[in-house]
Amino acid sequence: MVSIDVWNASVDFPIFDAKSRSLKKLALGKVGGKIGSEGRVPIIEALHDISLSLKEGSRVGLVGHNGAGKSTLLRLLAGIYEPTRGHSRIIGKVAPVFDLGVGMDPEISGYENIMIRGLYLGMTRKQMEARVDDISAFTELGDYLQMPLRTYSTGMRVRLALGVVTSINPEILLLDEGIGAVDAAFMAKARDRLKDLVARSGLLVFANHSDEFLAEFCDTAIWMDEGHVKMHGDLREVLTAYKGYDPFERMHMPHEAPVLSGNGGE
Ligand SMILES: Nc1ncnc2c1ncn2[C@@H]1O[C@H](COP(=O)(O)OP(=O)(O)OP(=O)(O)O)[C@@H](O)[C@H]1O
Prior knowledge:
By secondary structure, this protein is of the alpha/beta class. Helix content is about 30%, strand content about 25%. The strands form two sheets. It has a six-stranded mixed sheet with strand order 6-7-8-4-9-10. The protein has a four-stranded antiparallel sheet with strand order 2-3-1-5, with helices on one face.
């Protein structure tokens, strides 16, 4: 059974090369984490006193303003950041999909990049060999797959990366927002694959600004605000509190409720 537990966790970033002395005074803007100081070094308190328990079947959307701590939380949940204070326990293999370009080498072919990116996301060579034809067909890149990646347009790279990402079997799938940033026609095609990917993931946390995306893939949500968990619960309730209106009322979707089964909210 996969799970992620976090107890009273904080993540600080000390900034050793901050320019202004006035930074040492506690400052708080509209966006971003709190800037404080520890001795003489300014620190950004990106996450503060986070406690969470995510179990198998969780489908969690992550919302919040710029700098609220979503990406930092995803990295904490991935085990990439250790908490500065508090504890975390991750049970299961994490597939972190934060940047579609990570793990891609411009000098090698599309085919080779499919393999490398798959290995990076926790698949074995054998598993990737079994998937490469399916991924190739999905990307519609044809003979380009034999060309070095540096000859691809941005959209072509995204096709390749999405093809690989949607082919994996993740125990814990952590998605940052970039995944939604492809052209509409290709996204429509990728959506079904994304849906299948989410359905076979043990646990999903998905940072995204699109209500439609969140409604399609998640049933609960966490609202991050200035490094804190401001609200954690049913997706619709959290989105309504965060936005100040119920976005489900304006949504043009074939179904009103999220289509995927999960832990049923809290
Ligand atoms: N590597 C880093 N070094 C210093 N500060 C950082 C670092 N990463 C994030 N921060 C700070 O931590 C806070 C939270 O940033 P984070 O990227 O987690 O926010 P976010 O909610 O993902 O924002 P966005 O929606 O704009 O992507 C911000 O104040 C940011 O300045």
